[in-house]
């Protein structure tokens, strides 16, 4: 549902840009080849489920304006989806279901988040820019653990599912450095939080090439490295110490 809302906003603001030349509209997306590692579960029952590497998707919309003291706005959506299998070395519980030592369990970690960011452009001279702001990261997902049990020739499946839905505040920062007369620039951006029992970071860095540059539209291609760390304590009974990292490729359109 949240991804549909973001898609609707992208369409609406793209149409608005034709009527408001003072606005800068940025729309971008990327495919991220992520390597997943770490543990998750309920308190005291966290397990390394050997999550598989998988391609993830992410896209964003940003609106910038020249009005002083009013922040610019950015909305981005990212999916984190992976599956894994583990043989338990001890008894655990997950979502009120019991799984015994020696069981082969399957996991499905499917979490998406939408970042709502307000930020200020602290500096921009055409070659170097720096932005800083605050993000509300809205988590939503389903995490499932299941196991098939055979007893006296009969088989049954035990399955526990947790649903997450919580907003966590984070610090946002972004910078770009242009390489004169080349069409290339280097960039870095990220969201960060270390507060109470939560430690999160999501950063990316890479290089951008300006493929199209004219009065109507600019199009840039991007290539880089991205890493997301989720150390969460008790988000709807979910505890995680996970990291997703790898290379990405994408594109950005500026109206």
Automatic annotation (TrEMBL):
The keyword Signal applies. It comes from the Bacteria. NCBIfam families: OMP_w_GlyGly. Residues 1-20 form the signal peptide. InterPro entries: OMP_w_GlyGly. This is Outer membrane protein. Keywords: Signal.
